[in-house]
Amino acid sequence: MFQILMLCTKRAIVLIVHGFAEHCLWYNELAEFLVQESYLVVAHDHVGHGQSEGDRAHINDFSEYVGDIFQHADMVKKTHPKLPFYLIGHSMGGCLSIMAGLEQPDYFQGMILIAPAIIPDRNAASPFKIFMGKLLARMFPQLPIIKLDSSAVSRDKAVVKKYDDDPLVYHSGLKARWGLAFLSALEKIKMEQENVDWPILNLHGEKDALCDPEGSKMLQEKAKSKDKQLKLYPEAYHQLHNELPDVKDSVYKEIKTWLAERVK
Q1: Mean pLDDT computed over 164-186
Q2: Phi/psi of residue 88, each to 5°?
Q3: Where is the signal peptide (predicted)?
Q4: Helix axes 92-103, 63-79, angle to 10 degrees
Q5: CA distance 147 to 124
């Protein structure tokens, strides 16, 4: 499932890359905001997510997600070849955005990362747990092994309730094979992060319990890009774009300003 939102006047293309378990309709408000700023906004549900086909939240390799990003991007580029192209990636979508940039560094003009997944959870990725995960991934690839805590999504209780009540959100646990593919993707980023040389705005909550903000700090230090910004929100949780109003408004403003300064 994918969508395209735009006005007659278009300054640039923005492809929103959603996170694990959720779907692209969670970005309608952000998309409408950007459309009013004259951006052409597109998004799609990853395979196995939302209204897309495939086994729920199951993947063998993250390259499948990345391939879909380029397939969608190619479709949009064919009809708007002269427009600059930016990514907005949240959580797993941030991981995928970085992977896409590493695969084709000149394809996008920059990206905005919102609480990107860059390093594994230190408790969930102990050597023993990784060993057991590999074993389970071979024997029971679709076995749920870790359940996400929805209360960590946002400090806004209305957002958490909406998340819990959404039938298109995947509410079961992380599957063994998906978890192994996820760790492999994070290892790739760790090995290649110094090759990140495109413009980046990175926004992360310091109380994020789902994607460690230390990963964003590491990327800020290691990436060789000369145009990189990291803004941390001291009390914020995971979905900054769905946080309490002071954080949410700041995030929208940061995105608007950053894009406007780079789109001529």
Answers
A1: 94
A2: -120, 115
A3: 1-19
A4: 70
A5: 11
The span from the CA of 9 to the CA of 132, in Å, is 53
- Catalytic option among 18, 91, 154, 241: 91
Q: How far is CA 56 from CA 3, 65, 122, 245, in A?
A: 20, 13, 25, 32
What is the distance between the alpha carbons of residues 48 and 71, in angstroms, rounded to a whole number?
16
Q: Tell me, yes or no, if 238 is annotated catalytic.
A: yes
Catalytic residue among 18, 46, 49, 208: 208
Active site residue 23: no
**Known catalytic residue: 208?**
yes
Q: Record the tokens describing residue 11, joined without a space.
A: 């300054």
pLDDT at 128: 44
Over range 185-193, report the average pLDDT.
Answer: 97
pLDDT at 138 over 90: no
Q: What is the mean pLDDT of the chain?
A: 92
pTM over 0.85, yes/no: yes
